[in-house]
């Protein structure tokens, strides 16, 4: 719980109310007139009406049921038919931080929220990249999406004809773990690979390619896949920019919503054909198709996992090294969080 999670894209939070469940906490988000993002508990202190289904006026939420009115710190500043407002009339407020076009929320002990801990994805908010993105809610637990993204050999089978080619599954990976920073690195460098339509159509490369996939998983929420595509034999120069290659920064926010649901924020930033609308549209559509292939598979897996007997033993092989490292780090974070937050509830900021 003592972690930063991506709650929304900055552009999703405007002059309306956005309700989202993050780590089991129903939250309501809005943006004040000054542009600050606010996150409050999405439950009116009076009769629990969802504040996300209420009204926003002058940076305050007026409950849609009986009109309790909350300011941006969660304090109730007006109640119907009486002047005196009970001292306990407030809803918890959460710490949020907007960075790299993402809205992060700190769930857990609010005093521990340190924005310096938020991992960066600067290409999402850079004029040197063009980004397509979306969010799909999964009816699957968070760990299934972590497994999925840490083992890209599934591209060959689940995404064949889109981003998968035989070489992805055939090429061994290397895995490294930074235990202090809680980051897992998984690399797969294909020196002479078929170019999937996904890249041939967007880059214009004809023929075979050098295809590198360098994954960084910043547990628990941010997943980065640095993808480098170049004609076979074109390697990064010793000095100077790697401008003979095409770079795609595939970025995922993996946010647990409930025990069995996950918010799958997917973003694809490219450093080529920046103003080419046809490429943008092609990448938006084909990435969405690929994401939906994963959604269908993971929702199916959730049903399988949910219905199986306890102690079912999976079998792991070399391709699972990254996924297993991620599981180990997540288990460590959970254990550490349980020690720190035993019994603590979020507190309203005064
Ligand atoms: S439930 Fe919100 S004012 Fe009654
Ligand atoms: Fe996938």
| Biggest beta-sheet profile | 7 strands, antiparallel
Number of DSSP strand runs: 17
* Ions and ligands: FE2/S2 (inorganic) cluster, fe (ii) ion
| Helix/strand/pairing category | alpha+beta
**Biggest β-sheet: strands ordered side by side in the sheet:** 11-17-16-15-14-13-12
Name the CATH homologous superfamily of the largest domain: Naphthalene 1,2-dioxygenase Alpha Subunit, Chain A, domain 1
Which CATH class of the largest domain is shown?
Answer: Alpha Beta
Low-confidence stretches: none
Domain Rieske: 4-105
Organism: Streptomyces malaysiensis
InterPro entries: Cholesterol_7-desaturase (IPR050584), Rieske_2Fe-2S (IPR017941), Rieske_2Fe-2S_sf (IPR036922), VanA_C_cat (IPR044043)
Keywords: 2Fe-2S, Iron, Iron-sulfur, Metal-binding, Oxidoreductase
Structural notes for this entry:
There is one protein chain. The chain has two domains: 3-117, Rieske Iron-sulfur Protein (3-layer Sandwich), CATH 2.102.10; 123-336, Naphthalene 1,2-dioxygenase Alpha Subunit, Chain A, domain 1, CATH 3.90.380. A seven-stranded antiparallel beta sheet has the order 11-17-16-15-14-13-12. With 350 residues, it is α+β, with helices and mostly antiparallel strands. The chain has six helices and 17 strands. Residues 148, 154, 158-159, 294 line the site of fe (ii) ion.
């Amino acid at each position: 719980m003592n972690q930063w999670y991506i709650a929304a894209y900055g552009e999703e939070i405007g002059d309306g109310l956005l309700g989202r469940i993050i780590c089991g906490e129903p939250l309501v988000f809005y943006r004040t007139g000054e542009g600050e993002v606010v996150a409050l508990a999405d439950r009116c202190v009076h009769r629990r009406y969802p504040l996300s289904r209420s009204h926003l006026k002058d940076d305050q939420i007026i409950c849609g049921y009986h009109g309790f009115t909350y300011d941006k710190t969660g304090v109730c500043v007006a109640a119907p038919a009486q002047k005196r407002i009970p001292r306990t009339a407030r809803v918890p407020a959460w710490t949020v931080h907007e960075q790299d076009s993402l809205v992060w929320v700190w769930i857990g002990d609010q005093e521990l929220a340190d924005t310096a801990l938020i991992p960066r994805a600067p290409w999402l908010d850079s004029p040197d990249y063009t980004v397509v993105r979306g969010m799909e809610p999964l009816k699957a637990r968070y760990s299934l999406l972590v497994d999925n993204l840490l083992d890209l050999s599934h591209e060959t089978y689940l995404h064949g004809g889109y981003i998968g080619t035989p070489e992805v599954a055939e090429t061994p990976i290397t895995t490294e773990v930074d235990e202090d920073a809680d980051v897992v690195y998984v690399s797969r460098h294909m020196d002479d690979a078929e170019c999937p339509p996904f890249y041939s159509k967007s880059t214009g490369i004809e023929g075979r390619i050098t295809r590198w996939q360098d994954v960084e998983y910043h547990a628990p929420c941010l997943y980065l896949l640095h993808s480098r595509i170049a004609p076979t034999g074109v390697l990064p120069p010793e000095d100077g920019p790697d401008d003979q290659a095409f770079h795609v920064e595939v970025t995922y926010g993996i946010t647990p919503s409930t025990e069995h649901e996950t918010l799958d924020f997917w973003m694809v930033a490219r450093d080529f054909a920046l103003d080419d609308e046809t490429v943008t549209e092609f990448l938006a559509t084909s990435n969405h198709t690929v994401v939906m292939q994963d959604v269908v598979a993971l929702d199916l897996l959730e049903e399988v996992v949910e219905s199986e007997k306890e102690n079912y033993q999976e079998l792991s092989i070399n391709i699972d090294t990254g996924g297993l490292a991620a599981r180990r780090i997540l288990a460590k974070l959970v254990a550490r969080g349980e020690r720190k937050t035993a019994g603590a509830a979020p507190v309203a900021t005064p």
